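Re: beginner question about structure tokens

> Can someone show what the tokenized structure looks like for a real chain? I only ever see the sequence side.

Sure, here's an example I had lying around. Input first:
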Amino acid sequence: MKKLLMLMLLVFPFIAHGEVETEILCFRAFEGNDIKFEFRNYHDPAAKWSGALVKYATSKESIPLVHKSTEQEATTEGRSYLFITRWSEVVGGAITGEYVMVRQGPVIYAMSYKNAKSKKHYSFERYPSIKSSPETGCQW
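And the corresponding structure tokens:
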């Protein structure tokens, strides 16, 4: 009986874990540039893990992002907190830029990118009318 129990524990180690949550957001540049990207945020509340990536509309490759920090600010009483989240863009083992998102619940107030080398800064707006799914991403 003990062997059967051990076998079951080895075969089914993830029964207690929930699924990884996936959020897909589509963004476009404010500045009139035709820059569009898909932002994927992955979160496993049980493991307290999160990760993200971006994929530009003109690229076949995704760029991994590493969570850097999340700050929360209290706003008007009775409203949810304002969250400012920063991700480091990592290409070839080096940090090449930083993404910053400001959101309150489902509302995204700002999304920006700063290139580490050129120091160029880009602002983006969420593009909610674009259809997206975990299987297909943003349908530009």
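Each token stands for a local structural state, so reading them left to right follows the chain. The CA atoms of residues 4 and 10 lie 10 Å apart.
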